[in-house]
Amino acid sequence: MSLKTPVRLLRALLPFALLAATGSVAAQDCAVYDDATCGNQMYTAEAPQLQRWCEQGTMAACSGLLREWTSEARSADTRPQNDDPVLQEPAVCKEADPAFDEQACEEAAKAALSKAMGMALVGIFDQRQIVLPAARRQTLQKLCLAHPKGEFCREVAQAQWTAGSYDTALVALKAGCAGGDESACELHAPLQSLGTAPQPLPATAVPCGEYRSEGGLLDTLEFADGGLVGFGLGDHARARLEDGAIRIRHDKGGDFVFKVLAGGHLVGMDDWTQMRVYRRVGGAAQCSPAVVFKAVPLPQDCPGATAEGAAEACCAAGRLQGCNVLGNQLALDEQWPQAAVHYQTVCRAGVREGCENLVSAQDSSAEVDARAALEHLCKADASGTAVACDVLATTNWDMIAMGRMLQEAADDVAEPEAPARTRNHKR
Prior knowledge:
Blueprint: H1 7-22, H2 35-38, H3 47-55, H4 59-76, H5 102-121, H6 134-146, H7 152-162, H8 166-178, H9 182-192, E1 209-212, E2 220-223, E3 228-232, E4 235-242, E5 245-249, E6 255-260, E7 266-268, E8 277-282, H10 310-316, H11 320-332, H12 336-348, H13 352-364, H14 370-380, H15 387-394, H16 397-414, H17 420-426
Antiparallel strand pairs: 1-2, 1-8, 2-3, 3-4, 4-5, 5-6, 6-7, 7-8
């Protein structure tokens, strides 16, 4: 799910940082790894050298080898890194397409680059699951069993699990636990206690009731009517069944993903919940089926939307991308009520981003009532399956209200008291 800074980029940049701090360091022929003389080379060593150091018991080199091989597999993967249409090559950039426009392409590229940089910073750009070749996973497994110290065996287990080698992943976790990795023990014990080898199976329905895991980022799942899932503290999301997996949208641009184990337990399959076992502990015995909401992707119908005046013209012509960009531009100027008007237009058309941006506007300004707007849009849809209904039900409104109260209290402390007219004008 998440994008780390590419390993090759790190390897290219870190030596310069080290040299700047310590001065020039002569290259060493590190036949045997020694941190005092070879530490800097860890960031520039190729896979064969990392493997030799790993075989000698240098655990940082073992982890580096796994990252290097994962980076190579990622570079060789031809799938799109993200299915966001903003990040795909638009027609205006394809010379063979009648819509080709060099200036429009340049604007589209700027918009895509800006979004890509923002997504990379929060770790959601590359959503591909990378599966290492079997031969390399076998080599890593042998290295793990030979040197089970640190986090390396758990990292190998994660690679094996992603590839569907569940039994082998359990062996790697056991080795890591024996080597002193408490997190490996935490993952291994629930899987081992199943009594049978872990074998995730396709799900046939969204579950019902409360499920818990032992630790992890997400330790409680409360499945209720319509696929609504509670995480505790008033946070909710919506579960759906897709390609044999139970998926729950989260705020990082991806999904929590679960499959079913023997006995009806759930097991995490995504980067955040991977290998976590969730056991049913009670809750509702029966739930109404998960609701499928009507959501459409944001159209890319305004090439060059970031150019001066372009978004406003597109929005006036009824083009949703223009309205969304115009809302973003107003939001950057902290004109939240005006931005909310355009977000509401996008939301009304069934685009999830518009509804979620509307909520963000209320989160930022007391002058915006996104909740009332979403309630109106939801009631206007007789089926109750408008995406506005979903965003309305899964937003933690109490947390938004509390956050605003805390922010206003902080502002009052930070700013000296001013005459009422001045304060009203500033708001």
